Every structure is written in C-alpha cells, then in structure tokens.
Amino acid sequence: MIKIEAIVRPDRINIVIAIAALNQVGCRGFNVQNINGRGQQQGVEVFTGRGATNVTRTSLPKALITTVVPEAD
Q: Any idea what the CATH number is for the domain that residue 51 is in?
C-alpha cells in the first residue's frame, strides 16, 4: 500500500476528489484535513481595521487530502 498526500487550496477540494474518477482507479476512500501553511506564495497582505492598516499573513488556509492505494496502482 502507498499513502498519497496532496495539499491544495480549500476551493479546489471538490475538483481533486471527484468521486467517479477516484472509484475508476480503485481508490475507495480519502480523508480531508484543514491545515495552515506557507509555500511559494510567501503569504498574503490583508487590510484590517477598515483598510487603515496592512498585515501580512504568512500562513494561509490549505486542505490536506490523504488516501491509500494498492502498490500496483
């Protein structure tokens, strides 16, 4: 068995876990966890206090999708 982990943006979860496509390749289950992290984007600038101040958020919301598939697949 091989464990596959993918970190994606939360708005892309439904695209990645298309149930018909996973069933077609033999993947019967998966887990989704909400996580925070930073990658190549290096954070995002957020306006706070009615736009009066700028704050840089270095950790952004992500989703971790985990599944296990047979080694032959």
A: 3.30.70.120
Token pair 């706070």 is found at: 48
Query: Cα angle at 17 between 13 and 19, to 5 degrees?
Result: 140
Give residue-wise pLDDT tens across range 50-64.
767 777 777 788 899
Question: What's the token pair of residue 1?
Answer: 């068995």
- Whether 22 and 9 have beta carbons less than 8 Å apart is answered as no
Range of the domain at 13: 2-68
C-beta of residue 40 within 8 angstroms of C-beta of residue 65: no
Q: How many domains does the chain have?
A: 1
Residue 34 or 71, more confident:
34
Q: pTM for this structure? A: 0.71
